[in-house]
Amino acid sequence: MKTLLAIASSPRRNGNSETLLKEFCRAAEDAGWKVDLVRINDMKFRACQACDACAKDGRCILQDDMQDIYPKLTESDALVIASPVTFGSLNAQLKMFIDRFQCWWHAKYTLEKPFVTEEANRQGFFICVGALKRKRYCENALEIIRVFFHNINHQLGGSLFFRGYDEKGAILEDPEALADAYRAGKDFIDKVESL
Ligand SMILES: Cc1cc2nc3c(=O)[nH]c(=O)nc-3n(C[C@H](O)[C@H](O)[C@H](O)COP(=O)(O)O)c2cc1C
Fold first, then answer.
1. 84 alpha carbon to ligand 1 midpoint, in Å?
2. Ligand 1: does its nearest atom lie under 6 Å from the Cβ of 86?
3. Which of 35, 83, 131, 160 is found 20 to 30 A from 142 (Cα to Cα)?
4. Which CATH superfamily is domain 3-194 in?
């Protein structure tokens, strides 16, 4: 069975981005995939300390919950990340998570032994939700995701922006948005399976 690793970054359990993420994942489950949902906000981990110990072997020496994530990502078949916009970008929890992949940067560029190879053609998807209609906030967040995906050798298989949703549960009042997330999940899985 193939596995979709789903990363929720919001501190709001069942908030707007997590609800959309779950709709996306429901499509994967309907296609027979296993979904491994990780909530970054429930994890205990430190920010990258820039110690460069990972330059030796591509492994992070900080012994915290990030150690569970590296093998999950190596072993999964596709990735989806959902983030709320905070201060015009992706949220702090997700940025801290991304920075902890500095060890994968060293694995790829210094050691030339990436944990996921480019040839694997691994696909990733990004879901972004903001309160304001301004598109550039989600675009800003997506730009960081592009850099992250490049570092971890994932292709950007697609993205969805939802703008104009603020209160927790606001997205539930918009069945079309939920349907868009489900459809995007279905199209993404179809694409991954056709590669
Ligand atoms: C600290 C913080 C900063 C925020 N900054 C922005 C922002 O710059 N632009 C925006 O459109 N929404 C901003 N928002 C609103 C959230 O993006 C919005 O409430 C979103 O629906 C939250 O998604 P969630 O329910 O998945 O957490 C901010 C929310 C918080 C808590």
1. 5
2. yes
3. 35
4. Flavodoxin domain (3.40.50.360)
The answer to whether the CB of 96 is under 6 A from ligand 1 is no
Q: What is the SS3 assignment for 143?
A: helix
pLDDT of residue 5: 99
- Asked if residue 164 has its Cβ within 6 Å of ligand 1, the reply is no
Q: Cα of 122 to ligand 1 centre, how many Å?
A: 29
Domain ranges in the chain?
A: 3-194
| pLDDT tens per residue, range 181-192 | 999 999 999 999
3-class secondary-structure state, position 169: coil
pLDDT digits (tens, 9 = 90+) for 19-54: 999 999 999 999 999 999 999 999 999 999 999 999
Per-residue model confidence (pLDDT) at position 45: 99
**What is the pLDDT of the chain when averaged over all its residues?**
98
Strand partners, 160: 127
Contact 116, 153 (CB under 8 A): yes
List the one residue out of 63, 3, 68, 59 whose CA is nearest residue 29: 3
Does the Cβ of 162 fall within 6 Å of ligand 1? no
How high is the pLDDT of residue 158? Answer: 98
Q: What is the pTM of this model?
A: 0.98
